[in-house]
DNA sequence: GTCTATAGTTAGATAGAC
DNA sequence: GTCTATCTAACTATAGAC
């Protein structure tokens, strides 16, 4: 066999792929099991129930298996730097490249927030992400150069930077945000986080 | 009459109020016209169609009539300050207090993004908000103290700050973000935007 | 402008043959 | 594991009396 996955695994993957596309296009309640079955290789609706007990189970599987947390933690753990500035520049530069590639997931997370009060995302976040992020922050604060900020402040500021970057990139209708290339925007955002937007000799 | 609104206006308001609550709780496709009619004073479904031609028209009316743009522009136009720092502190302090009060609207905007590709929000943004914001930025850049940043960079940084603040406040499940009071968080965010997170004498 | 009643459609999920 | 056929419930929207 060319593909060593079982027939069932292939079907499962096709169903999830079709469901993801339709959820993103039409929302959760706007997507019917019929539509998913048809998009997943013209299957019969009943066949879907061999792989997932309910429609919600398909959605939950998407959140659990296609999230960017592994990539995010990989970047945080592998970023190099002898100073806090070098580490943050290295990590955020990569994060601002990689996270927007998971825009589909962020859209699914918004659906989760609306349709399920965020419970699927929250479970993965609290189980897999937060514990590891704490360790990263401790290591970051041991590097020289940071203002004496509370760790939780540091986490929220960096998370806000990434979230704000992604949201403003996709929300502004026909705005000029796309006229500058990503590298310029990334640099501007990181510089602003590190040193702010005020002139140095204007400090009051 | 105690209320000088016509009977029709009262019904319209009740319908919109019920629809908003249900859209926020259950999403757009998850909310039926039946449920709206029942929540709006146990009305008959057919009565809704005297006030709105379709279900989408109810949603559009919510976006158009309950958005925070008037409040936002009011703050930007009324903020005082002889320097850029004073103006930004004044404006952002107010914005970070007022905008989270419109969290319901942001949630409706997310629904718009998912169900209607953001077309209702984008229309209001491009017609009413962007033209006025340009004027504010020009005035801000005439004040002393700013680094020589492109106006569009300034807009996106400030928008990201506000969006990131609101999103991280409501997404993190049971996280410690609520353990510090709003005033502290607001101050931390504004300070970070103005002067960054690096120690002054650590600049490389 | 409100109601009752209902038309016409589509939803999620299941039964049972293969 | 896949299919055809179907159940029951819910949906948006309309007709027509008051």
Largest sheet of chain A: none
What do the pLDDT scores of chain A average to? 91
Q: Regions of chain A with pLDDT < 50 over 5+ consecutive residues? A: none
Count the beta strands of chain A.
0
Order of helices and strands of chain A: HHHHHHHHHH
Secondary structure: helix percent of chain A = 55-70%
Structural class of chain A: mainly alpha
If helices are DSSP runs of H or I spanning 4 or more residues, what is the number of helices of chain A?
10
Q: Tell me the strand percentage band of chain A.
A: under 5%
The oligomeric state is: homodimer
Question: How many domains, in number, for the residues of chain A?
Answer: 2
**Which CATH first-tier class of the largest domain in chain A would you pick?**
Mainly Alpha
Q: Can you name the CATH architecture of the largest domain in chain A?
A: Orthogonal Bundle
Largest interface: A-B, 63 and 63 residues
SSE inventory with pairings:
The structure is a homodimer of 204-residue chains.
Chain A: H1 7-26, H2 33-39, H3 45-48, H4 55-65, H5 69-78, H6 84-98, H7 103-115, H8 119-142, H9 151-171, H10 182-195
The structure holds a DNA duplex (18 and 18 nucleotides).
Q: Can you put this structure into words, describing what you see?
A:
The structure is a homodimer of 204-residue chains. Chain A is mostly helical and 204 residues long. Chain A starts with 6 loop residues before the first helix and ends in a 9-residue tail after the last helix. Helices cover 68% and strands 0% of the residues of chain A. Chains A and B meet through helix 6, helix 7, helix 8, helix 9 and helix 10 of A and helix 6, helix 7, helix 8, helix 9 and helix 10 of B. The structure holds a DNA duplex (18 and 18 nucleotides).
